[in-house]
Amino acid sequence: MSSTPVKPPNEIHRAWWKESSVYQIWPASYKDSNDDGIGDIPGIVSKLDYIRDLGVDIVWLCPSYKSPQVDMGYDIADYYSIAEEYGTVADVEKLIQGCHERGMKLLMDLVVNHTSDQHDWFKKSRSSKDSEFRDWYVWRPPRYDENGNRQPPNNWVSHFQGSAWEFDEPTGEYYLHLYAVEQPDLNWENPAVRKAVHDIVRFWLDKGADGFRMDVINFISKDQGFPDAPNQDPDAIWQWGDRYYANGPRLHEYLQGIGKILKEYDAFSVGEMPFVKDTDEVLKAVRYDRNEINMIFNFEHVDIDHAPWGNKFKPGSWKLTDLKAFFERWQVFMYNNGGWNALYWENHDQPRSIDRYVNPPQALRPAAGKMLATVLALHAGSPFIYQGQEIGMGNVPIEWDMGEYKDIDCLNHWKGLLEHKPTDTEAQKIARQEYQKKSRDNARTPVQWSAEPNGGFTGPNVKPWMSVNPEYTRVNAADQVKDPQSLYHYWSEVLKLRKTYLDIFVYGNYKLVDRDNQEVYAYTRAYDTSQALVLANWTDNDLAWDAAAHNVDQVKEVLLDTYGTAGASRERFSGGQWTLRPYEAVVILLK
Ligand code: NOJ
Question: What pTM, to 2 d.p., does this model score?
Fold first, then answer.
């Protein structure tokens, strides 16, 4: 098919960050350099060549600041120092330098919806109602029911179970914590809080950091009426979160305050934004001329296997067409409106993608990993790869008992279940199955560096803070670096291809092909008169696909094939009827 020239609206908004891809690091589980069983910054520095060779442009370091680690560093006690177990500020400076020397940038994690209750600001805030820091957090007096019993100011529930309010005996008021009790929410209405955040942003940019990933950034502006939610069902948190504590009236004003500083430094930004279904709201945050943030993490495709209303630990089901619908919606929307997508399958809060989106037989896991890499990275947007994804690490074993799980989200859910349904063994069994599928622990097992004991993450006789997934003898970085056919090398090929055909894969448009097919995901990307097809078999069977029926059978060149060199597969993609091997993905330049 010779295509009609496509003139992309994004053409005029070229930017280095659109062309970049990002590699995310969870410091506790990356690489332990001092045999204390916990990953650390020097460990990360020792792996920078491995990261560079993958072909990414940016490294995102998850929170590494001083923290009691109730929520693995998302509870910050001091934004200006590094957790002792991870290293020092000087180590981070070395990391920044090491990235820069290799042509990569470094992102810090900005967690400013809340702090740790061990932060000095909070300690002072809770010390007295007259403290100059009182108004840095959200304090409200109790309500009383008809029997005179003390109740929280409203019925909101925390993301980690229970009320979102904690009573503080000495001053007789409640403080808000949308996450753990130990994570009090900051009061962004207070200009002193905003100024303090701006100072933190400048501090790290002045140290050479190149930008930020911003934690739950759309929660910073909340409905100041703090109204009751329609119900208090924790399963229904997703129904009302957006109405009351997400995307509040001053969100864009606050984002522009940070955005102004980021612009001065030409820094990168990606915001985590749960509960955004409203495309206009997203666009206000990410459109190129708004100077707020570059892109956001959307949640629809990672909530795909949750039960209705976002109930994560209840079984949910999905179809390939649901996933395709998500991508189509956001791909087309951003392209037409001057916004930008962050592309991800995995992060530190999500299970492993091969298990979530495919779940193939053992022998086909590498093939499935390559297929997912192709499909994700050639969409329009900036691809994010989470540590271990590049080698196809899997979820924790089904046999693991609760003692192996470490994450507060999962453990609080389990505690709640045992409290409220102590005899319901069926509910407990289902929850256990769902933890193995969806717990954040799946992402947090140590990186499998080699087939050595402990997967080479730490010394052979050390007990790592979290057990290494026993698959490390089969799935590890050392083997994959040596094997040119490995998933690790395949990722680098995909990222290279994305840059070689920059106009098509970064700036081109997106069109979903064969919409209703439940076995194949196919889309085209086009720029001017060039057009490419990305085609993926989502099944573990050989599959016939009628390329002619979709008007994409005019092959100019096979650019990439998950099953090996493009030349070898060339003849399989001539004529109108094609055959795809199990989980095969192929990238074809069309005439
Ligand atoms: C989102 C982070 O990704 C998650 O890990 C954390 O628990 C919450 N925000 C609270 O900071």
Answer: 0.97
